Amino acid sequence: MAPGLARAEMKEGRSHAEEARDIEELLAAGNHREALARCARVYAAPIGRLCMAFTGSQADSEELVQETLLAAYDAFPTYRAEGSVRAFLFGIARRICGRFSETQARQKARLRLVHDTSSGRADAGELALEKERASRAREALAKLKPSEREALVLRYDAGLSFREVAQACGIDEAAARKRVSRALGKMRAEIGEE
């Protein structure tokens, strides 16, 4: 086996807990640049999935990941290690995605005024059905309170534990569980039997 390949496999074999400890040590030592590089390597993909769940756009999610990492870099001097690095980063991403979603919603509302006169017809077939389901799910998600939507997306799309959801949202674990439960109930009621 090539030496470079062996090193790459060793890095891949490291657990997220080990990576998080390394990042916390770098932050404690004030080495913010290296901590940012490690955060990007370890957490960019999961943050990207979270941003994608919020925005529905690959291009927007990539920009929001970069914005999240830059905001994290700016916040590193104030990081107190009260929760996990992962929850810290997802909390920043949640806020950035929330602001982005609000801005997009305002822009879409304005555009809807212009485009309401032209009604688009759905194509027949499975693609149209999938688009309809996705649209209904997005609409149901959009009807949730922002706090419930964030908790639901953090829990099921980002895969955070209830404890990490609580840390990312700045609430206790019981409140995080309640928010997710309420959000699921509202989504089921809104979407119906699916």
Report what the structure shows.
The chain is 79% helix and 0% strand. The longest helix is centred in the middle third of the chain and has 31 residues, at 85-115. Residues 1-11 and 116-123 have low confidence and may be disordered. It is mainly α and 194 residues long. The protein has 2 domains: 15-113, RNA polymerase sigma factor, region 2, helix turn helix motif (Rna Polymerase Sigma Factor, Chain: A, Orthogonal Bundle), CATH 1.10.1740.10; 130-194, Winged helix-like DNA-binding domain superfamily/Winged helix DNA-binding domain (Arc Repressor Mutant, subunit A). The protein has 9 helices and no strands.
Instruction: Give the strand content.
Output: under 5%
The overall pLDDT average reads 81
Low-confidence region ranges: 1-11, 116-123
CATH structural fold name of the largest domain: Rna Polymerase Sigma Factor, Chain: A
Distance between the termini: 49 Å
Indicate the radius of gyration in whole angstroms.
Answer: 19 Å
Structural class: mainly alpha
Instruction: Report the CATH C-level class of the largest domain.
Output: Mainly Alpha
CATH architecture of the largest domain: Orthogonal Bundle
Label the overall shape: globular
Helix content: over 70%
CATH level 4 superfamily of the largest domain: RNA polymerase sigma factor, region 2, helix turn helix motif
Put simply, the count of helices is 9
Number of domains: 2
Largest sheet: none
Give the total of beta strands: 0
Which series of helices and strands comes N to C? HHHHHHHHH
GO molecular function: DNA binding; sigma factor activity
Family: Belongs to the sigma-70 factor family. ECF subfamily.
Organism: Polyangium spumosum
Protein name: RNA polymerase sigma factor
